[in-house]
Amino acid sequence: MIRFFDANKKLLAAAGIVIFLAIPLVVDNKLLIHLAILGMLYAIVASNWDLTLGYAGVFNFAHLAFFGIGAYTSGIITVKLGISPWLGIPCGAAAAALASIIVSIPAIRLRGIYVALLTFACSQLVLLLLLSQPLITGGQQGLTGVPQLQIGDYLFRESEFAHFYLVGALLLCSTIFLRRLVTSDFGLSLIALRDFEEYAVARGIPLARQRLLAFLYSSIFPGLAGGVYAHFLIVASPDIFGFSLVTLLLSMVLVGGVATIYGPVVIGVVMIFVSELMASSETMSELFGISSGPVRFMFVAVLIVLTMRFFPQGVWGLIKEYAARSRASNQAGDDTRT
Amino acid sequence: MTLEAIAAIIASGLVSGSLYALMASGLSLVWGTLRMFNFAHGVLVMIGAYSGWYISDRGGLAKVLQPLGKKITKNSEDWGLMGDILYPLGEWILSIKSGFGLGIGVPLAIVFCGIAGYVIYVLLVKPFVGKPNADLIVIITTIAGASFIQNGVQVIFGPRYKKLDRILEGRPLEVLDTAIGLQEVLIIVLTPVTLLLLHFFLKLSKLGLAIRAVAQNDDFARLVGINVNQIYPQTFVVSSMLAGLAGLMLGGLFFILPTMGSEPLLRAFVVVVFGGLGSLPGTIVGSYVIGLIEQSSAYVFSLYWAPVVLFATLILVLIFRPRGLMGGKES
User: Fold this and answer.
1) Three-state SS letters, B88-116
2) What's the confidence (pLDDT) of residue B330?
3) Which of A226, A272, A324, B168 is most buried when burial is the number of CB atoms within 10 A of its CB?
């Protein structure tokens, strides 16, 4: 089976794309498509987080702020200045990129725990700044009335198709970008810095520059995703910065498997389905007689702790281990035959 | 700036400084011994406030017990001897209709926080002690734990705001023409006393000495016969109790919410970075400095810009003194 996968990678990718394109035509359920879009958006954010968290080994807790900045920037300039959302989204990405540079300048000078503290404080600061300007950002209620995307007269919210394909394309681009990045010399240098900093620096890898670039690269697609998110939901809300969403996205990266990119992408989508269906399911509220909204976050939290405790390599890591083992046993089989 | 304004700024700065000091000293203590950072510390503050409210207020435990009390007093005659024994219990339950009061609520809440801290240690920290990257893993697990507890409290207590009774009622104190509430005065006075007790505890008691020994060098602490694996949870419990105390104070000033701990936790982070992780004097000085900076910038600029000023200060400190103003060199 593994051999089949190895031999037909291109074919499988093509089949995957065809299946993906067919999904909205076959699935006639608005809620499921809606969840898939949300899941893919979060998968973009989570997989980009994997670049700093997994590959660079930097404890960057400001990552969701990049997503939020993308959403708010695009939302504000389209609402207040009346600019087209198609211009607003790249502006959001540019703002996110700028923010990533600002955050990384003090962060790359620090180590371990201090990075986590600084970036965490940064993301909270962005939130406080947003809340402090209710006239521009809508304050606690969030920015409402964000215009939806449209091409000509076609409004994206009339059906979920357009969003589905748009976000799918964005996820594909982001994943290809990330995979290319982490297998390039740049990605290898990040891994080298993470695994043996002194030696990597001694071999001439510029620590500060590589880490700054890692922050920068990891912020662009979340910035774009944030913009799309705001126009998709026609609202930009401060909940983006909440503890709950951080936990949810963290669980995508960790359960999916750090330093894999594919793991957070796949688990990101799965996790949204699981947690949203939990939140909306009748059985949950019947069983416990409580609203199940908070319960799903408790579930996610338990999942994180169990992952860290029992399989820290994550789901994708487990799959990779299994594949490597069966490849090795295939190899051994071939050797005995010849 | 008038004299009254300055007095008001100093008073409110001291109040927030006190709260930060209680929180940050616990964080700093745990960092010193375990080299780990407890992101569930804010949740412990919240637990302190909620458990204090639950025990002391009429809407909490007392309300839950009322039906039981009624049942006992009503049916005790049918239960024979058992009923005679239980009858006073039932009457007693009915007599505490208005809650157990703060006199019982405060100490019990602090004890409960200690227990909660111990549970957090056993479930979220202990399995990772001694593993590579343990400090970073524990950030993740304690964030997850915080999310679990926060949402759990939301489920149990619902979204309605709660408030602790003030410990001291009465006319506000007049200092330099500025009215300062008695609760605030209590916080300003009680915190240094608590911190002084903490200081003596660390300097004089056996456990305190052991905690400091582990903080300085855990290998040597092991060599002289200190059971390091026992010191870790004990440190955690002490730190959680301090957080609980902060929560009880906070609960008397503001509304009690599941998310009430997050904002003070953010400030406590700023404080420990400012004062240098693991340095208790640095942390305490840092707390008051941050409290005063925050309140004076709230006055000079506006309430909204105070966090910005705070953060600018933090970034400057991090750029020029990454180990904090009073923190030592990394060993």
Assistant:
1) HHHHHHHHCCCCCCHHHHHHHHHHHHHHH
2) 47
3) A226
Residues of A in contact with B308 (CB under 8 A): 125, 128-129, 132
Inform me whether the C-beta atom of residue A297 falls under 8 Å from chain B C-beta atoms: yes
Q: Output the furthest CA–CA distance in chain A (Å, rounded).
A: 76
Contacting residues for B261 by C-beta, under 8 A, at least 6 apart? B41, B42, B43, B44, B45, B46, B247
Q: pTM for the whole thing?
A: 0.83
Which position has the token pair 């810009």?
Answer: B305
Task: Test B140 with A294 for CB contact under 8 angstroms.
Answer: no
pLDDT in tens, B234-287: 889 999 999 999 988 888 888 888 888 888 888 888 888 777 777 788 888 888
The answer, for A176 touching chain B at a CB cutoff of 8 Å, is: no
Residues of A in contact with B273 (CB under 8 A): 114, 117-118, 121
Backbone angles phi, psi at A236, to 5 degrees: -120, 115
Rounded CA-CA distance B310/B75 in Å is 61
**Strand ranges inside chain A, DSSP E:** 143-144, 150-151, 154-155, 235-236
Cβ distance B140 to A254 less than 8 Å, yes or no, reads yes
For residue B199, the tally of other CB atoms under 10 A from its CB is 16
Residues A116, B136: C-beta atoms closer than 8 Å: yes
B175 forms bridges with which residues in the sheet? Answer: B178
Whether residue A132 contacts residue B305, with contact meaning beta carbons closer than 8 Å, is answered with yes
Distance CA A203, CA A182 (A): 19
Chain A residue with the nearest C-alpha to that of B265: A121
Q: Which of B238, B255, B261, B285 is nearest to B41 (CA)?
A: B261
Q: Chain B residues with CB inside 8 Å of A307's CB?
A: none
**Two tokens at B189?**
């006075």
A134 and chain B in contact, CB less than 8 A: no
Contact: B137, A246; criterion CB under 8 Å:
no
Q: Which helix (H) or strand (E) holds B234?
A: helix B228-253
Give, in degrees to the nearest 5, the angle at Cα B31 between B11 and B196: 45
Instruction: Say how many residues make up chain A.
Output: 338
ipTM computed for the complex: 0.80
